[in-house]
Design goal:
Length: 523
């Protein structure tokens, strides 16, 4: 089984994605996570370009990496100076990594129009830079920027740039589709051509501008590349880089290459979600292998089949990549999804049980009104318990009032007053918040704190509002989805009303009651 070396550039190329800005601490956290996963190389950044990246390498020296080799990134020397005079190369050496990645120009268009040097000077810049870094005892990866475009426009010169890098002593040559525009058949053929001419370790680095980054990376591996570069979740400039979370399982589980141990592969979903959290980027639910919806089933026919034989609608076992199967509840999914959800909740239901039919009909009616239970598992479990008479309210609302006041200084004050009963004990309290929903949340928690101290463990992690009928204007129904979490799990709840405060209240109450129900069940 051939081992493919994984080269992660999330901390450098990934940080160039729109909306992403890593602190030094963020980069250290991600690097430690990638090291634990077993990634072979972690590109930490370009120390010659900014203080933050040099700060990362300074902090990284204090850490012990068990599985990964840190790599610092930079460019070939500037024109008309020697490598020893180049501040960028001095920074690379100062970073303290044993492996460096240097990019140079392969495309004559870039040499003439961007660098504005002669083609011969560019060749000297590549060769002399690699030679200099090798003389300092470093492992050198040469990144051939824009190589695929260069090959198609001027094959001879593109190959000559690789030749001088090899002459300079490069340990590996990385072929880069920097514009991300290659078609997969072209990419594979070009890699094979390079493989036939050079007896050196090859790598692949692909951007996703044509939506083919993963396919092109896999084709390059099949054509002879032993190093595959990419980022977690495909983060990167413009349309992003090749997504390692998709490449790795395809190479290992579909094509028989070895990238990670099977045990580490099961951590892939966790790593994907961890990096999205640190990056402050929403996890894409439909991301292959690691997305929340990757193994989610909604249609009744699909659900029925997958429960008899998972292979009927799943291309692999979700546990292989650390994910899990989800059965979605909607008006489309039929009785099977109701029964399976009940089983998850330790409730006993069968197809012939009258409760099953009643729950299904209720779901269909509510979804017709605008409710959406796929993303509201907490609300759905409460609904099932209520229909089956297994639910006892934790409190009873007697009323609430929300006041929003705009003052002369343009400050906006939101205050909620709430009155409820818990075990026949009346609580009447008020609280301010950043907005009306936050004020309601604070007032509700304040009223319940003495009775249910475990509520301090939970917090709202997401709040979404959707207008259901835009034609109705400000009188339209809205759907509010709230995502909540505690130390052990997260859950969604839903509310629907023409009044956004009422819809928010429904979702908010369900969120609190689900937390209490969950804790009660696991006592």
């Amino acid at each position: 089984m051939q081992t493919i070396k994984l080269y992660d550039t999330t901390l450098r190329d990934g940080s160039q994605g729109e909306g992403i800005s890593f602190s030094v601490g963020d980069k250290i956290k991600i690097a430690r996570k990638l090291d634990k996963l077993g990634v072979h190389y972690i590109e930490g950044g370009w120390p010659g370009s900014n203080p933050k990246d040099m700060g990362f390498f300074k902090e990284a020296k204090k850490k012990r990496f068990k599985n990964s080799e840190l790599v610092s990134f930079g460019s070939t020397r500037r024109a008309k100076i020697s490598p020893s005079q180049d501040e960028n190369l001095k920074s690379l050496i100062k970073s303290g990594t044993r492996t460096v990645a240097i990019f140079g120009k392969s495309w004559d268009l870039h040499v003439v129009d961007v660098l504005k040097v002669s083609l011969q000077e560019n060749l000297s810049m590549i060769k002399e830079t690699v030679e200099y870094l090798k003389s300092r005892g470093l492992t050198v990866f040469y990144d051939a920027e824009h190589f695929f475009d260069a090959y198609l426009k001027n094959r001879d010169y593109a190959m000559e740039t690789l030749d001088v890098a090899v002459q300079g002593g490069a340990d590996a040559v990385i072929l880069c589709d920097t514009n991300g525009g290659m078609i997969t058949s072209e990419a594979g053929a070009i890699v094979r051509s390079v493989q036939n001419q050079f007896g050196i370790s090859l790598g692949i680095h692909v951007h996703n501008d044509s939506g083919m980054a993963v396919a092109n990376s896999i084709a390059a591996v099949e054509a002879g590349c032993g190093i595959v570069q990419g980022t977690i979740n495909g983060y990167g400039e413009r349309c992003g880089n090749a997504d390692l979370c998709v490449i790795i399982p395809n190479l290992q589980l579909k094509l028989g290459y070895k990238c990670l141990s099977n045990a580490k592969l099961k951590e892939l979903t966790e790593v994907s979600h961890y990096v999205s959290e640190i990056s402050n980027m929403k996890q894409q639910d439909n991301q292959p292998f690691v997305g929340r919806s990757a193994f989610a089933h909604k249609g009744g026919v699909h659900i029925n089949a997958v429960m008899k034989n998972p292979a009927s609608y799943e291309h692999l076992n979700p546990e292989a990549v650390g994910n899990h199967r989800r059965i979605l509840v909607s008006e489309l999914s039929g009785k099977t999804s109701i029964i399976l959800k009940a089983k998850e909740m330790e409730l006993d239901l069968s197809k012939d049980d009258p409760h099953t039919k009643k729950i299904l009909k209720l779901v269909q009616n509510l979804e017709n009104q605008g409710y959406y239970f796929e993303a509201a598992d907490g609300s759905f479990e409460l609904l099932m318990n209520k229909v089956m008479k297994k639910y006892k309210p934790f409190f009873a609302l007697e009323g609430f009032k929300v006041i929003i006041e705009k003052r002369e200084d343009n400050s906006l004050i939101s205050e909620a007053t709430i009155k409820l009963k818990v075990n026949n004990i009346e609580e009447h309290t008020a609280s301010e918040g950043d907005g009306p929903v936050n004020a309601l949340d604070n007032a509700l928690r304040k009223a319940l704190a003495e009775f249910y101290p475990a509520l301090s463990e939970m917090h709202l992690s997401d709040f979404k509002v959707r207008v259901l009928d835009a034609k109705a204007g400000t009188a339209a129904k809205v759907r509010v989805l709230i995502q909540s979490q505690d130390e052990r799990s997260s859950w969604g709840t839903v509310g629907v009303s023409e009044n956004i405060i009422e819809a928010s209240w429904q979702a908010l109450v369900d969120s609190v009651e689900y937390k209490l129900l969950k804790d009660q069940r696991h006592r």
